[in-house]
Design brief:
Helix content: 40-55%
Order of helices and strands: HEHHEHHEEEHEHEHEHEHEHH
Radius of gyration: 19 Å
Strand order of the largest sheet: 1-2-3-6-7-8-9-10
CATH topology: TIM Barrel
Shape: globular
Number of strands: 10
Oligomer: single chain
Distance between the termini: 39 Å
CATH superfamily: Aldolase class I
Structural class: alpha/beta
CATH class: Alpha Beta
Largest sheet: 8 strands, parallel, barrel
């Protein structure tokens, strides 16, 4: 419970730097950066050594490779983060695979052997974990069985985390891909969250000791009718009020492919309009919406490290300002 509260305290949020090796390599390839263990290590060193990062970031979600890596001077990344006041976390699912007999739907795997892996990560110094379920919206999707299978897996993961002394970040992501409307996304997100909390209660998860990491309610990327910031804000907060128990200490939104500026603007709008009357904190757990500008500046070159770190701390500060309802477009200039 103390760790869960700390993760959303002081208007801070989470930095998701838990990209798998293949995902990280894909992002490097797009920018012509060599896809090697050393370049991945160098990029992650750039992130964890950014001066002042702990002023805006409460926790960092790592990947199995990352949690074992060190700086060039052999200082473990875990020590760098904890010295900066940042709580280390770890992604523990093994990815989303096709759900048998359900075309277009996925099920997240990784429960086999999870108890032992969690014990190892706790001993290493991790204090929270993350598991992502992906839900597609479309013709007949999501199905009842697809929803229930993913909700059940999330709940089993969460209770294993708490048994091991780790705060579970519960991430059911309704994907932005597709031409679905804002209303279709709202209906799907509401159904997903209802199923998730039914299963969390069935598995005896302590709600005060978890963090929810949901999507914003958004129309699909190819929907002809895109929504304003206020429309997204209303749909998202009303959906959460109908589904998320007040016992949950915080909701840390994923960025899910939104641009860095838009993710900050939407988080800001929710806190401006609703913060004073919500039972839980509205925070952030962004990956690309914090990292992408940094990666584009770095380009794999040592000479660009300082400028890349400045871009990273700028995005972190923008999102902390958004939690306070103080973010403005002028900050981007």
């Amino acid at each position: 419970m103390d760790t869960a509260k700390a993760l959303v305290a002081d208007d801070k949020g989470l930095l998701a730097m838990d990209e798998s090796d293949p995902t990280c390599n894909k992002r490097f390839a797009k920018l012509g950066i060599p896809q090697t263990v050393e370049t991945r290590r160098a990029y992650r060193e750039l992130i964890v050594t950014t001066p002042g990062l702990g002023e805006s970031i409460s926790g960092a979600i790592l990947y199995d490779e990352t949690i074992r890596q060190k700086k060039k001077d052999s200082t473990p990344f875990l020590k760098v983060l904890t010295d900066a006041g940042i709580i280390p976390g770890i992604k523990v699912d093994t990815g989303a695979k096709d759900l048998a007999a359900h075309p277009g739907e996925k099920i997240t795997e990784g429960l086999d052997g999870l108890r032992d892996r969690l014990a190892e990560y706790f001993q290493m110094g991790a204090r929270f974990a993350k598991w992502r379920a992906v839900i597609a919206v479309g013709d007949g999707l999501p199905s009842r069985s697809g929803l229930e299978a993913n909700a059940h897996a999330l709940a089993r993961y969460a209770t294993l985390c708490q048994e091991a002394g780790l705060v579970p970040i519960v991430e059911p992501e309704v994907l932005m891909d597709g031409d679905h409307t804002l209303e279709q996304c709202r209906a799907a997100t509401e159904e997903v969250l209802r199923n998730v909390f039914i299963q969390l209660n069935c598995q005896r998860v302590l709600l005060e000791g978890m963090i929810l990491k949901p999507n914003l309610v958004l129309p699909g990327l190819t929907c002809s009718q895109q929504a304003s910031v206020d429309e997204v804000t209303d749909a998202t907060v009303n959906c959460l009020l109908r589904t998320v128990p007040a016992a949950v200490p915080g909701i840390a939104f994923l960025s899910g492919g939104q641009s860095a500026e838009l993710a900050s603007a939407r988080l800001n709008a929710m806190n401006v309009r609703f913060k004073s009357r919500l039972p839980w904190a509205l925070a952030f757990s962004f990956a690309r919406a914090i990292q992408q500008p940094t990666l584009e500046i770095w380009q794999g070159k040592e000479a660009n490290v300082k400028a890349a770190q400045q871009a990273l701390i700028h995005r972190a500060r923008c999102n902390r300002a958004a939690r306070r309802g103080e973010y403005t477009a002028a900050m981007e200039r």
